Amino acid sequence: MTTPSRYWREIPQRYRLEANKCSKCGIKFFPPRLICPECKNRELEKTKIAETGKIITYTVIRVPPHQFVDQAPYAVGIVELDDGFKLTAQIVDCDFEDLKIGQKVRIEFRKIFDEGESGILCYGYKFVLDE
Amino acid sequence: MRDVAIIGVGMTKWGELWEKSLRSIFVETALLAFDDAGVDQIDSMYVGSMSSGIFVGQEHIASLLADYLGQVPVPSTRVESACTSGGLALRLGFMEVASGMSDVVLVSGVEKMTDCSGSEATYALGTAADQEYEGYHGITFPGLYALIARAHMEKYGTTREQMAMVAVKNHRNGAKNPLAQFQFEITVDSVLNSVMIADPLRILDCSPISDGAAAAIICPVEMARSMNKPIIKIIGTGHATDRIAISTRKDITWLEATYQAAKQAYAMADKKPEDINIFEVHDCFTIAEICVMEALGIVEKGKGGDAVEQGLTSLEGKIPVNPSGGLKSKGHPVGATGVAQVVEIVKQLRGEAGERQIKDARVAMAQNMGGSGGSTVVHIFERE
């Protein structure tokens, strides 16, 4: 269940793609973390993830969770962004036949789902094909 | 540290058990283990359960189940690590006996998954993924393993048919297991023509929703000897974690937690993969069994599909995997699965596995993992 405070807390990441990176080893974290798992450094700098990348794997969800029933079938993929970061999100506005590993995509800001008739409209990032 | 033996196991038939409640399934099963061990009093108990709170709206089940098992006031601990809750219950029980803290300990797992709607059960299982960065985007559990499957196909050339063969093999074994949920065989064609769930995975690639429990009684080896019991020793244990969001792993086709947990267990038992006669592994989806075999070092990276196709992992093969029928055919009441693997192994090592008995088996391994591989427990057992 998405409550207002739970939704609001994630806005910097979901709306603005805010991430952070380790000041020592340069690894990027999305969502931001408090400690680098590689070198245990706690000095992490604010940054942002790239907005374009390529599909490294994908699936088409035919049996969805209840919030996504009106969207099924829909594609979800893992994309390796141009900065090396990997992200899971829906891939939309495409024919499933056009999906392939290596396909270039870009991030767009979209509605993800809604919490019923009186609940929150939940937004965030999705991928679209980038010709 | 004291050596630890398993002196009793219990399991009832798994399936959609409409007439039974969580507590009745659990108590019936635990009493079978009591009878098998010849005890009616324990010093402590562990219960693996992933999500009784969502499945039946009941938390605090450690005490509830100790009460209905007639064991109050013994200490009772519920263990949660998604689908590896049962395996972890065994590990914690092992540590308690090995340390000398307790002598006779019940390790068990239970899940009652059909008292809620299908969508509630799907939701409960989905909570094992990263809710904010995987679940939020509409990914499901079959979906996560589908992402792993497609990446494995791309990287190693694993085929759709090879994945189907995992399900066919496990159903062939499960057809010989009177406790399995699905005691019938299937064909590669029936898998490839079954309903698509998350491309490329179809319904017959997926383990089912099940009700069930499994239980084992463990004690120090010296005590087991004095009770004149067949000695099945726990000679190795390992437990490891991985990042639960699969996109954040370096290689999404590789189950690092399984590799790390197995490394610990092999070292403790002083065994290598080729010393193991039987593997019970976590085939929640067909692709999972392929990836697990690679991470356990049974086959080279990328060769899991070939091994299945060549029949190496069948009952008659060189490295039998999931003689019980695995999660696919035996069923997957999530919290109970890790302990059910042990039930099968004890039966096999005692020579009580009937039609699916593997000849002259002495050493066996159980691998039980949570979610999409974010946690794994591995144990190695040996018949004395």
Give me a quick take on this structure:
Chain A is mainly β.
Protein model, in words:
The complex is a heterodimer of chains A (131) and B (384). With 131 residues, chain A is mostly beta strands. Chain A has 2 helices and 8 strands. The relative contact order of chain A is 0.18. Chain B folds into 2 domains: 4-117 and 210-232, Peroxisomal Thiolase, Chain A, domain 1, CATH 3.40.47; 124-209 and 237-383, Thiolase/Chalcone synthase (Peroxisomal Thiolase, Chain A, domain 1, 3-Layer(aba) Sandwich). Chain B is 37% helix and 18% strand. Chain B contains 14 helices and 11 strands. In chain B, the strands form 2 sheets. A 9-stranded mixed beta sheet of chain B has the order 3-2-4-7-1-8-11-10-9, sandwiched between helices. In chain B, strands 5-6 form a two-stranded antiparallel sheet. Chain B starts with a strand and ends with a strand. The chains are: A mainly beta (131), B alpha/beta (384). The A-B interface holds A 10, 31, 56-68, 71, 74, 76-78, 86-90, 96, 101, 112-113, 122, 124, 126 and B 119, 122-123, 126, 132-140, 142-143, 146-148, 150-151, 154, 195-201, 245-248, 252.
